Amino acid sequence: QVNGERLWRTLEEMAQFGATPRGGVTRLTLSEEDRLARDRLRGWAQEAGFHCEVDRLGNMFIRRPGRNGALAPVMTGSHGDSQPLGGRYDGIYGVLAGLEALRTLNDLDIETERDLLLVNWTNEEGARFAPAMLASGVWTGVFSEAFALSREDKDGVTLGSALQSIGYRGEKPAEAFAVHACFEAHIEQGPLLEAEAIDIGVVHAAAGQRWYEVDIQGFAAHAGTTPMTHRRDALCGFAELALAVEQIGFDFAPDGRATIGMAQVTPNSRNVVPGAVFCSVEFRHPQQEALVKMEAALEAAVEKLAERLLEVKLRRIFDYAPVLFDAGCIARVEQAVNALGYSHTRMVSGAGHDACYVNRVAPTSMIFIPCVKGISHNEEEAISPTWSEHGANVLLNALVSAAQD
Amino acid sequence: QVNGERLWRTLEEMAQFGATPRGGVTRLTLSEEDRLARDRLRGWAQEAGFHCEVDRLGNMFIRRPGRNGALAPVMTGSHGDSQPLGGRYDGIYGVLAGLEALRTLNDLDIETERDLLLVNWTNEEGARFAPAMLASGVWTGVFSEAFALSREDKDGVTLGSALQSIGYRGEKPAEAFAVHACFEAHIEQGPLLEAEAIDIGVVHAAAGQRWYEVDIQGFAAHAGTTPMTHRRDALCGFAELALAVEQIGFDFAPDGRATIGMAQVTPNSRNVVPGAVFCSVEFRHPQQEALVKMEAALEAAVEKLAERLLEVKLRRIFDYAPVLFDAGCIARVEQAVNALGYSHTRMVSGAGHDACYVNRVAPTSMIFIPCVKGISHNEEEAISPTWSEHGANVLLNALVSAAQD
Ligand SMILES: NC(=O)NCCC(=O)O
Ligand SMILES: NC(=O)NCCC(=O)O
């Protein structure tokens, strides 16, 4: 069993990097705050005697050697980046639960057969650079390295130059190698476990996602002199689109999700009829056929904007099929949960995770712990020390089980 | 008659300050670009032998002395600031047509009875600091100096500190003094004059305006895990409001205008259900009763957002009654137009202008010249050298007529 108190202290200390006044964190990937968090993680790893290697996308690999370094290692980890005004557990909990598992093995002087690898993946959130899970996507061959390095944030900074700026562009190619098994611990980010007072979610699947970018082009005009009938108002067209997207979500309830999270108005001046709007759209659903239908509905909504004499460009930038995790890994997690005497349920993740990509190249599954009211991507995100400790115990047991194979 | 060629050259030279790739200007008030434009204007004034005085709001007063400095001066002028991605004539045309009138009087060695005062007003656009016509509003007693100095731009910079930064915070209080008559030349910013091939708009009135700020507060949530039925999506509420505001504009057609020009989404991340939206709303109408009804309709639309469990705060930040210009000034402009043999029509301004505020303390009217297709608050804004020259000739004649009284 892990040292729950040390894990909690470590989580608290990490939460200072990018801390916001209302108890959350803004630790955008490859920001100065992220650099400080990475440095601290590396420091902790080194204190515990673990080597840390960084690849060309800034993914950090922390290794606790086993008896037989020639065998494929067992992997765990998650991400240290956050949303803007995000929570202090999303992602980093999985990294630090992994660190705690490795530290505990040191404390107990347990030698595993296989190496254990703790990974801190770059840009999981997709908040600074779209899409999400970009670096684990490159590592598993979904995206090219060149594509990832050239992604730009809102200010036009590329991921590649951001890596350079914070000194986390490593030498090692970001390419998958043989992994025996992978487990990612994460907060649920939904309300189910807490509501039903269940200790652990055994995640057997994840919803698919499709992300889009939309450019709506109208004509900037004077708000005082331009009659209503003569306007090509990009913002009013955007408003129509936003309500159509919301309706698509309702049409595919209860499992579907449809969200516009980001919108930028040009020139964004109070007395100018907006000339252009740039926005995101994203859909989620556990069934691929539903995603295809949601996309068709979006295309129809976009076409309707021609009635407003708006020119609209729609681009799909992310297509991520629903995921089924590995039965063997799921079984190991269930064995661990049972051995520890925790309550559990099988569940589907509505969020995307690095583990979803790793699952393409290695047997993988996930361990969820509850979070208060399911609140996430919000400064109010919260978990309890007990939940945190239980999740890390399950992770430790699953890792050791796989590493002794 | 003025030197039309010199006026055009001066306009072209000024358009370099804040020039945008597509032929417009972004010269936000009190920006570095505005400083350069102000310095150049002062330089031109000094070369022509005119003294330039700056008041505590950065308004620049350029004086050509008349025979009797004890008499109330005759005023002209407009503003040098622009919208973001705005046009190169909106505002600055009136300043430089005024400069050209003063230069012409030098060339022709004409001494007027009264002093002539050319004013470059600060922050007419209301783009960087809301509301519009802020500094002429202080000068005429509509706003207090403290209110104006404390207005903040999007980055939280106050107007007062922006004035300091560019070195245009003068000593002189921004307070009206006796003015015998005031004329402001401006581009129409609407399509009427060009469409009917009329040289000059004799502006006898201006529409009223009401500006608002709206805070829509929902709850930021994870786009993947939060069911559609559990969301308090501030952006979808905003979309509903935007379409309601547009409808209010149509309900008060043809004279009404309703616009949301600015919106900011928080946290504005692709996979986060938006927690908050901050936006502007503005209405225009030549009748005050209509503005009152438009406001009531806005209040109803805001209340409806409670159905979405959104908390909405609505603040009116600008209430500017319809304006009737001075009959005597209008008559002088018409006399000038007739003497010059130009075609003209009386018209109402849909835009607000510094002259609308000056009209509260001194007899005032405006002179409009055509602009291509009525395009304004847009980089494509355009006028012809002939239009420009005609407007300056009318201004010169009106000024001299008033200054010889
Ligand atoms: N776990 C998580 O919040 N990941 C971000 C990507 C997503 O929105 O699914
Ligand atoms: N003339 C002009 O565009 N002024 C800006 C204020 C307004 O929008 O009416």
From TrEMBL, chains A, B:
- The positions annotated for binding Zn(2+) 1 are H79, D90, H186
- Peptidase M20 dimerisation domain: from which residue to which, for each copy? 208-307
Kindly give the Pfam families that the UniProt entry links to this protein: M20_dimer, Peptidase_M20
Q: Name one GO molecular function term.
A: metal ion binding
Q: Report the superkingdom from the record.
A: Bacteria
What InterPro entries is this protein classified in?
Amidase_Cbmase (IPR010158), Bact_exopeptidase_dim_dom (IPR036264), Peptidase_M20 (IPR002933), Peptidase_M20_dimer (IPR011650)
Cofactor(s) it depends on: Zn(2+)
What residues bind Zn(2+) 2, as annotated? D90, E125, H377
Keywords in alphabetical order, please. Hydrolase, Metal-binding, Zinc
Q: Which CDD domains match?
A: M20_bAS
Cofactor info, note text:
Binds 2 Zn(2+) ions per subunit.
Q: Member of which family?
A: Belongs to the peptidase M20 family.
Q: Which PANTHER family match?
A: ALLANTOATE AMIDOHYDROLASE, ALLANTOATE DEIMINASE-RELATED
What's the protein name? Allantoate amidohydrolase
